[in-house]
Design a protein that fits this description.
By secondary structure, the protein is α/β, with parallel strands linked by helices. Helices cover about 50% and strands about 15% of the residues. The chain binds cytidine-5'-monophosphate (C5P). GO terms for molecular function: ATP binding; dCMP kinase activity.
Length: about 220
């Protein structure tokens, strides 16, 4: 599968930032699949759904419209929800939504359709292992949990949001565990993915490294 770059990894490893930069430089569309699970979660919170009610979550995922614009912003039923999907409430519940098989099936189908229509850099948890198994370029991006929590903390502070390092680290650790232990499409390293540990690397360094690998250097 040409013109497709697939990137997986745990939360806070820099996937979205790296994928966005890479897409800009390659002239590809960036698809942040985490944003799609977040959009379903946000919609569920708005409706006051019970996150243990799998059937209601699947019904909801089936009834909503999720779109991206060229800038990578996400729209839920036509409304830009790029900010709303980053709330603490969504952070708390998104891994529960993402563990529901029926919800995953709906979103994976959409992701596969988008990859068939565009040149894409797609990032998430199961892109290399489930969604785009035939992708020519596969990467697994990771970093130590301390560094991942530190980056999220700095990111929130830069946006003048209240941030507590310990809470952020706990939330990331809990999501890591839920995402890698779940029954359906758990986070794992694909056999044919290149693993990049970004703990001591800058964004530019990671982007250059990935570009060099893609270019076959
Ligand atoms: O990447 P981000 O942290 O925004 O993803 C939010 C959550 O969405 C993850 O913790 C995971 O539970 C879920 N997710 C997933 N599969 C993907 C992308 C995200 O299960 N491909």
């Amino acid at each position: 599968m040409d013109n497709v770059v697939a990137i997986d990894g745990p939360g806070g490893a820099g996937k979205s930032t790296i994928a966005r930069r890479l897409a800009e430089e390659l002239g590809y569309l960036h698809l942040d699949t985490g944003a799609m699970y977040r959009a379903v979660t946000y919609a569920a919170l708005q409706k006051g759904l019970d996150f243990n009610d799998n059937e209601a979550l699947v019904k909801l995922a089936n009834s909503i419209e999720i779109d991206f614009n060229q800038a990578g912003e996400i729209f839920l039923n036509g409304k830009n929800v790029s900010q709303e999907i980053r709330s603490p409430e969504v952070n708390q519940n998104v891994s529960k939504t993402a563990a529901v098989k029926g919800v995953r099936e709906i979103l994976v189908e959409k992701q596969q359709e988008l990859a068939a229509q565009h040149k894409v850099v797609m990032d998430g948890r199961d892109i290399t292992t489930v969604v785009l198994t035939e992708a020519e370029h596969k990467f697994y991006l990771t970093a130590s949990i301390e560094e991942r929590a530190r980056r999220r903390f700095e990111e929130m502070k830069a946006k003048n949001k209240e941030a507590n390092y310990k809470e952020i680290k706990e939330n990331i650790a809990r999501r890591d565990e839920l995402d890698s232990q779940r029954e359906h499409s758990p986070l794992k390293i694909a056999d044919d993915a290149v693993v990049i540990d970004s703990t001591d690397l800058s964004i530019e360094e990671v982007v250059s490294k990935i570009k060099a690998i893609i270019a076959g250097e």
